[in-house]
Structures are given as structure tokens and as C-alpha cells.
Amino acid sequence: MGDIRDRGSLGSPLIAEEGLKGGADGGGHAGDLRTRICDESKKLWHIVGPEVLCRISSSTMNLVTQAFAGHLGDVELASFYIANNVIVGFNYGLLLGMASALETLCGQAFGARRYHMLGIYMQRSWIVLVLFSLLLLPVYMYATTILKFLGQADNVAEMAGHICLWLIPLHFSFAFLFPLQRFLQTQLKTAPVAYVSLTGLAMHSVLSWVLVYRLKLGVVGLAIGLNVSWWCLVFGCFAYVAFGGCPSSWTGFSTEAFSSLWEFLTLSAASGLMLCLENWYYRILILMSGSMSNAAVAVDALSICLTANAWEMMIALAFFAGTGVRVANELGAGRGDAAKFATQVSVTTSAIIGLFFAVLIMITREKFAWIFTSSQDVIEAVDQMSYLLSFTILLNSVQPILSGVAVGCGWQARVAYVNLGCYYAVGLPLGVILGWVFDLGVKGIWGGMIFGGTAVQTVILAVITGRSDWDKEAMKAKNHVRRWTIEPPADDEAQLI
């Protein structure tokens, strides 16, 4: 136990220690409720804080790249935006979702103190994600044809397709980085991930300037900059893991990573589908809005609202990761009541933050659009949509956390069906009816998809979570860990006890 608590964590080692303690009350404490809430919040924010920094860093990398592309020209800006947000974004979401399977497996194994399995799980994830990355390569190779089919102008589609070919190394970096990040997060070793991400952002800014302005490489230089920066994140995280940061959970490469790949692939695919169905849902919202006649102002206003929502979602998605880890850790340790309490604290904390931003939007609804535009028509349209934006922010402060609970419990396949039904059987049709049949335009599409899709999904996930037998879930998690565990050699096992 000394290895995993005392060595390798650049964060607070006490939090890792507290996360492994049990207690009769399920929360690890016999004290009052306030003490339990404070302790649980400390563990939660130990994951959420660095995760927010990581998400901000990766988003800022894209903003830096787009800023340099904008100074190269309008076609370059549009091409890089399309390549990075449509082609790369599609693959990014799928691989990120697939890597979240490690939040279930590594999180539960860590709670059960089967530390040696974490490294094996990560290697299995690398294998599965690399295979899927190979299968997704045609999306990059035929990006020009795909973009022309989607209605992009020929010059933009051709340049974007050329950029996509240069971004293939970036694509493969996702297959290694995402599992590394989840591997570290599930052990509560979150500070190294944050440090590496912030260092990568600083390096990316300087590298982009050199490649564009000094070496005059244009959009190809921007693509090279993204490739180098993201692979430096991979090597930075792996260097921490391999050179003493995780002595109990990383014991080197193992052929055991090639066993049980089908079961691992099934869970990874369910995880990827669960998150992608939601990610694609919002992209469809933009495409549907853009296809409406005379909707230019409304679509501009919608893009501003969704940008504001995306920044707040970084916090919500950080809570998604934190909740998944906390629930998986407690279930793996056999503490169902502690997992339930972690869920309650996470949902309440995120909801309070969401309420704050929702109220802030309503207070500044006539002003915050000035950050993005000076068009009075767009500003007025944003003002009219501010009610939908506030409700969306409030709803999205709860829904991702419930999805995080699902990941911690291993319910990905079940939630994928829920997402499919809510978003595509309820939300999309309702959005079409309100937008076109009732002639409510973009507001109707957005309102229908939010109230019909996201709201229904949130209610269903809340019911599933509320009716869960947490002791039974803890038993299932322990059985799951036992079934997937490969016993270490006797010498290694002695070190883990």
C-alpha cells in the first residue's frame, strides 16, 4: 500500500489514502454529515479541478490554431475549422468515449486494490483504440469527397481534405493519450495530467508561431504543430507512468493485454456509442438550423449560445469524469453506500454551479453577446434565446453527472440505448415538428431537441440511478473485478497487500 499512496502522486497523497478507507457508514466516516460532504468534495475536486484545466488547455490549443489560420486567410480559417471540428471532431468523440471504458475497469480495480490490472487494462485500451483508429483512416483519406457531399465549397473542401491528411498523426495520438489520462485519473493522480496539458499548451503556442511566421509553412505548419504538441502530451504522460510515477499499477508491457480483448472491445464500443450519440446530436442541431430558409441571424445567435454552453460544459464534463472515477472506486472497494453518497455530492455540486451560470446568463442576456458580435440583430436574437440557453446549461449540469454514474457502474450499453431513444426517437422528431410544422424556426428546433431529448434522457437516468440497489452494484463490481483479474506473481502480490 505504501507504493501507491506515498510515491508518484503529484497531487495530495492523503486523498488517495482516504479513498481506500472503508467505514460502517459507507462514506468512510462516522462523523456528521458536514464532515462527510467536505471529505467527499475534496476527493471529487481532486479529479474535477485538473480535468477542467486539461479541457481548457485542449480547447485553447484549437483556438490558438484557428487564430493563426485566420491570419493566413478566410479560406484557410474555414478549411482548418472544418477539418478540425468536423473530421477530427467526429473521430475525437468516438475514441474519447471508447477510452472512458477505463473509468469503469481501472476505477473498480483501483477500489478493489487490484493495482496490477490497471496497466493491463490500459494496454488493452491502446490495442482496441489503435485498431479503431486504423478503421477510421478512410474518413481522413476521403475527407474532401465527404465534405463536398455535405455541401462544402470546393476550395474549402479540397484544402480541408489536404489538412486532414497531415492530421493523421494527431488522430493516432488520441488512441494513446486518452487511455493514459484515464489510467492516471482513476488512481487520483490528476496533477501530472494537468501539468503536462498546460506545458503542451505553452509549447503549442510557440511552435505554431515558429512554423507559420518563421518557417512560412502555412496550414501545413499548423497541422504539424498540432501533431507535435499532442504527441508531446502522450510522451509526457507516459514518461511519468513509466519512470516511477505508478510503481504498483505499471509493471511494464505484458502479453496479458491481448487476452479478453473481445469483452474489452464490447465495453469500449458501448462507451464510445454512449457519448457519440450525444455529441452528434448537437452537431445535427447546427446542421438542421443551417438548412432553414432565412435563418442567418438565428443561426449566428445559436452558434453564440452553443459556444457559451460549450465553455460551461467543460465544468460539467469534468464532473462527468470525476463522478465516474469516484463511483467506480467505491464500488470496486465494495462500498455501495459510499458510491451513492459520492453521486449525491457530485450531482448537488454540479447543479449549484449550473444554476449560478444559468442565472448569470439571464442577468447578462442583453450584454454577453457583445463579446462575440456587434450586430444588433444577432444580439437581439441571442436575448430571445437566452431562456433556452439558461435551461440548457442547468440541464447539462445534471445530465453528464448521471452519465458519469453510469460509467462508474458499467451501464454504458444500457445508457447507449437510452440515448438512442431519447435523442433520435423523441428529440429530433419533436425539433422538426416545432421548427417547421409550428414555424418556430431555430428556437423550435433547439427547444424540441432539448425538452424532448436531453430532458427526457435526464429524467430516465435519474430514475435508473435513484432506483439502483447500491449494495447489489457493489457486489456486481467486485465480481466483475474478480472475473477480469489476472493474479500477479507471488512477489508482486505481496507488495500490493
UniProtKB/TrEMBL annotation:
Gene Ontology terms: cellular component: membrane
Source domain of life: Eukaryota
UniProt region (Disordered), positions on chain: 1-27
Lipid bilayer topology: Multi-pass membrane protein
Localization per record: Membrane
Family per record: Belongs to the multi antimicrobial extrusion (MATE) (TC 2.A.66.1) family.
PANTHER family reported for this sequence: MULTIDRUG RESISTANCE PROTEIN
NCBIfam families found in the cross-reference section: matE
Protein name: Protein DETOXIFICATION
